Amino acid sequence: xxxxxxxxxxxxxxxxxxxxxxxxxxxxxxxxxxxxxxxxxxxxxxxxxxxxxxxxxxxxxxxxxxxxxxxxxxxxxxxxxxxxxxxxxxxxxxxxxxxxxxxxxxxxxxxxxxxxxxxxxxxxxxxxxxxxxxxxxxxxxxxxxxxxxxxxxxxxxxxxxxxxxxxxxxxxxxxxxxxxxxxxxxxxxxxxxxxxxxxxxxxxxxxxxxxxxxxxxxxxxxxxxxxxxxxxxxxxxxxxxxxxxxxxxxxxxxxxxxxxxxxxxxxxxxxxxxxxxxxxxxxxxxxxxxxxxxxxxxxxxxxxxxxxxxxxxxxxxxxxxxxxxxxxxxxxxxxxxxxxxxxxxxxxxxxxxxxxxxxxxxxxxxxxxxxxxxxxxxxxxxxxxxxxxxxxxxxxxxxxxxxxxxxxxxxxxxxxxxxxxxxxxxxxxxxxxxxxxxxxxxxxxxxxxxxxxxxxxxxx
Amino acid sequence: xxxxxxxxxxxxxxxxxxxxxxxxxxxxxxxxxxxxxxxxxxxxxxxxxxxxxxxxxxxxxxxxxxxxxxxxxxxxxxxxxxxxxxxxxxxxxxxxxxxxxxxxxxxxxxxxxxxxxxxxxxxxxxxxxxxxxxxxxxxxxxxxxxxxxxxxxxxxxxxxxxxxxxxxxxxxxxxxxxxxxx
Amino acid sequence: xxxxxxxxxxxxxxxxxxxxxxxxxxxxxxxxxxxxxxxxxxxxxxxxxxxxxxxxxxxxxxxxxxxxxxxxxxxxxxxxxxxxxxxxxxxxxxxxxxxxxxxxxxxxxxxxxxxxxxxxxxxxxxxxxxxxxxxxxxxxxxxxxxxxxxxxxxxxxxxxxxxxxxxxxxxxxxxxxxxxxxxxxxxxxxxxxxxxxxxxxxxxxxxxxxxxxxxxxxxxxxxxxxxxxxxxxxxxxxxxxxxxxxxxxxxxxxxxxxxxxxxxxxxxxxxxxxxxxxxxxxxxxxxxxxxxxxxxxxxxxxxxxxxxxxxxxxxxxxxxxxxxxxxxxxxxxxxxxxxxxxxxxxxxxxxxxxxxxxxxxxxxxxxxxxxxxxxxxxxxxxxxxxxxxxxxxxxxxxxxxxxxxxxxxxxxxxxxxxxxxxxxxxxxxxxxxxxxxxxxxxxxxxxxxxxxxxxxxxxxxxxxxxxxxxxxxxxxxxxxxxxxxxxxxxxxxxxxxxxxxxxxxxxxxxxxxxxxxxxxxxxxxxxxxxxxxxxxxxxxxxxxxxxxxxxxxxxxxxxxxxxxxxxxxxxxxxxxxxxxxxxxxxxxxxxxxxxxxxxxxxxxxxxxxxxxxxxxxxxxxxxxxxxxxxxxxxxxxxxxxxxxxxxxxxxxxxxxxxxxxxxxxxxxxxxxxxxxxxxxxxxxxxxxxxxxxxxxxxxxxxxxxxxxxxxxxxxxxxxxxxxxxxxxxxxxxxxxxxxxxxxxxxxxxxxxxxxxxxxxxxxxxxxxxxxxxxxxxxxxxxxxxxxxxxxxxxxxxxxxxxxxxxxxxxxxxxxxxxxxxxxxxxxxxxxxxxxxxxxxxxxxxxxxxxxxxxxxxxxxxxxxxxxxxxxxxxxxxxxxxxxxxxxxxxxxxxxxxxxxxxxxxxxxxxxxxxxxxxxxxxxxxxxxxxxxxxxxxxxxxxxxxxxxxxxxxxxxxxxxxxxxxxxxxxxxxxxxxxxxxxxxxxxxxxxxxxxxxxxxxxxxxxxxxxxxxxxxxxxxxxxxxxx
Lengths: 460, 182, 1027
Description:
By secondary structure, chain A is mostly helical. Chain A has 18 helices and no strands. Classes of the chains: A mainly alpha, B alpha+beta, C alpha/beta. Chains in contact: A-B, A-C, B-C. At the A-B interface, α2, α7, α9, α17 and α18 of A face α1, β2, α2, α3 and α4 of B.
């Protein structure tokens, strides 16, 4: 990309940054001594740790007594555990999407946010991955889902969407992790060279793998990064499609719909960006990163939220139309029941949070107001959680057999485990902010004007 | 005390990406082999400037992806239709359409591993140490804001004096000989 | 009142004590007794703590010590169809008899290594002979049938409350505890010690019975204590029926009905399926008259049933026409019918003339062939029964093949509420000082207007013989435990008088004796074994018979041909008229009225400690673990009842109880119906369930006028297994009228209509099930009456756990075969439908493809098998099951089970662990038994050889199971199930999903009166518009 276009549009990084100041500004966060850690960080960390402890306790009791401690019953066999699973997987989409898709589209503004977006992805997928494991009746044999030769001589059933799920989420997690780490190698090298004390020297030295930024290394490195971005793009689209198969492949009216894959992906990007937004605003304020995460970045993300939110809204409408058009009584009932039945409150919460509220982003002023975008990003995530609740619970509660219909009521443990999963997520994320480069140093340097060789030609 | 030090190569620092590019071109034209440039971020046009051939990484990835696909299909076909066939929902033992998602996922997984491991292999990483790390200045700057050219003693054209001289002639500063610390 | 309260502290001091703590009645000791008791069959496992679990383990050690002496010492004869010798792992079936008040049901008890584990009906017994679909079976053979009470009675044998070693809970009284069996050993002394003399001031209060041996010993007792008074009381009895027949015929006679002969039946507040005497046989006989083979069925051959009732009963559900009137109006209605038939009776009322006209028309048509029958519920006053007897006489046109004949009962004592009233009066006046109570639980179920407990407290000597430590036991100073019928030798007369033998399956688990033994000790002072007592009686009854003949009787369980001879029944007109004049049918009062009725689940309360029956949903209300105040929608609106379970206070006279209200479509307006048998003060299971409605009951009548029902604060947690009443117009339960059906071209014309899908339209070719056995089931909805027998049979056969009220309320009940109940038509007077739903064993089972670990797959015989030890519990299969028949173990539901219940488990069925899915297996253990037997004899399984538990229990033969392989090589002739499925009423539920279920249904055919049918159609249309 030429310096020409570069200078014509507003700079991605504000403030007069030199190469050194970039390394300095970002690395110092991780190098700060204990007392140098911001108060707010401590506050958040304590809260998250409490939630995390609560998660541990709840899961221990769950394993001791059984899934009966939740609200799950007949006919609602899947309750909050699966709702949370889909919710977290959805969140986990933004990171890779930003790193991969925006990278391929040469959206250079991504450089400021992709690192912690990727981190968020990984932590979200960890939270998500936990749920299928603990929601089964006999968690101690959950590993039977893996295809390994065993004394029973029996194999898993590859026709089951749950198994596809395991492969999809597993792959997604592994690939995202490698993508994230690969992206971090140069920055780790930077920090390694700045390291003062022995522990940092050794640990960073190991993590940086001896990278020395040589021309030949950069060549392979960029190629590998490009390829990873290339394969992550279909992957990220596939993951939520496969998750949606859990529902679309079944024959439950309200689940058995072909629109699910695109609809789930849109929803995932939607909620993912909302979560990135939430975290970006937090990280920005805690560490004063205004120069790196500028209003331009935030506004771009708000535009994407507006777009995907509207797509989700379209999907809701489409579902209704098709169920009417299909002429299938069970389908029709399922959707009419969502909007008017016992769970109408959940349905309308979903609609207002996901479709109505985001519309305020049509106004530039709103797109650029930190407060508005922060609140809205949270609203959107509440809405997206409810979307999954509506899809899973209300559909199961009223299916083919009116005689079996029942009303799902969550228990204390449904709540405590949901809250706990946020504890796990935030704990991991705060640790990341504190000990790893939250912004991609090398990439930032790459987008500084003086990084471009032609930059110097114009001077003399 | 006097003893013959082991020279492993030389590094020279350059002011900015532009000068580094020029220096690289000169090095290339001079006909050096075991040399390299160092920058805290990838500099555009450096590959041409250095005249390094295109990497083979892409092919490697493609091969692994294909292996992933094949393995996934064979696994599912063998376990469901050969080793332990079960009547499930009255479907055929080898229900191919149901195999697709896993085939896709495993291809991607294999490809991703290939990309990362391949990259490290081609870069001969991880690596414990390297002569350039003997230069304090280099270590301090090369991943921060310094731009360097390094030549290794193993290069045929390497010569203590001449090379240092040449590096100076193409605008290098803080030129150092890399002395093995033993 | 508590024994620890000062006034009766001294009586309540234990004569024997286990420790000084107990003697001084230390709180720790009582606490310990209480704690020991907490876990129980009914409780959800999550209520159970480790500690309590260990305690019961301790109690079980005592049980373990019995194992040596579990085989009965007398000669009991294995059932013919089983090998004579005991093969380990091979169950033996023994014939016996379950006495229930005046009734006696023949049972066939399965014994695994000496443990009674399962009860079936005895086909040799007239009271338990099932109806079998005719024609399909090459070798017609009688089938046994059972009702839920018979099937569940085996659980009572293992009731931990019968174990004196296990403590009682807080409501009971430690002081009343007898150290193990001691009381029996010193019974003779106690009696002499009580110096009852010649019985002056002594009374016996016994439950109703019909047993030659007990009758003989009762006489012996009378001889020993000539001045003693013998009073008989049962909460539920036929006394009004006898009074009615006495009024008509001059002496109390028992009507014996032949529903199979009747072509028109008018049921007046009479539930022929549950609650009345002889219900198994009645249901079976009625089904025979209802059978519709195919479209060419002759309309004349299908009977028509009119039901007139207040509470919606199963009879109302299978009726072709149902008139909704309050229980108190039944008399007026009967009088109306009587008048129309030319019998003079006052009190006729105004009723829907179209209904009355068609009833009369149909009765008269039927009478022409001597095939009309009118029956009235036992709760109706004598006048109604007198009228009904008169009506039946009027409608009987020939003496042969009568639809009802009368018999004079022998060896039988019938309840008499007057006697009880008099007894209580004399107990108060002090005329009666000592009371011996034999069976029953009068302290609990005496009518509310008699203060029986108060009177009992005045007795200087009180003793009771009870099946378990019940409320009466808690108020007497000598409690003796009676043996369960599965532990006893005894005899009984069936409803039709057939002599039936009770043979024990097991030595008494705890120190207990039978009523006969008790009476013998009391009157003779000698302890003679029940076996000898019975032999003595029978020698008198049927003369001295040789051992072979005796063994034959023991083996069959009945003495063939010993039924009562029909008694000459001549209507004594004058007597009848004077009777009617003196007590005419009651004129219905206005204002709210209360009807107390026998419970569909726990009878009069004697089964209230039975977890299976408590958790068995009431077939009409679908309520478990509770009795409710059932009211009509209109009344609910009037009272302001909006939600299920809102509490109402029902006040009758000076008594009032608070009950959860239940809005029941089709219930009569301005009336409330409450089930008896709940809310006992004693019993680990029974005391957790419901409220005691006996308090409201009057000794005069079961229908109490001028009651007040008011909405009160609060909601009661009501565990119903089905909350949605409407079928939403979906083609699940499909039916048609006989006329419409005969006209219809295809079975599409069962209603609601469905979109038949072409089953070959699918992505894959389907799996071929061409070879070997291919099991399948057909359920005839036309015969099914929703009596719940199949559900209990399945529970008992397949070790299905009781999960408790809380879990049931959460929708976690485990029943493998549930009975869906739908209402159709206008909510004031809807039609009720019942549909049993087991696993459908779909060939394209949706549950299988979604299981990630292949824990549910198909076997080569077309069974959808569940592999428990492979299941990891994702519950995906349950979500994807369109029939919602899969059940999940949300907890370790067997963890809290009392140790003694382990003896009950069927060793051939895995006890499921926590976290695994389970469901109907088509009784695969029975299938395999059949296959093994066949293999040993080197033959194939015969048609009808494998019988599922639900099929075996079904009194009406609605369930048919067998091989569907139509390959002529394999099955040269059609099997019964193939034949049944061949019917043009056969349909697959949710066929459009192409799941290809192996279980199919035969549509219901109603036979409405043409003139009335139009009215029904109209009301249907109205409700259709509502949806």
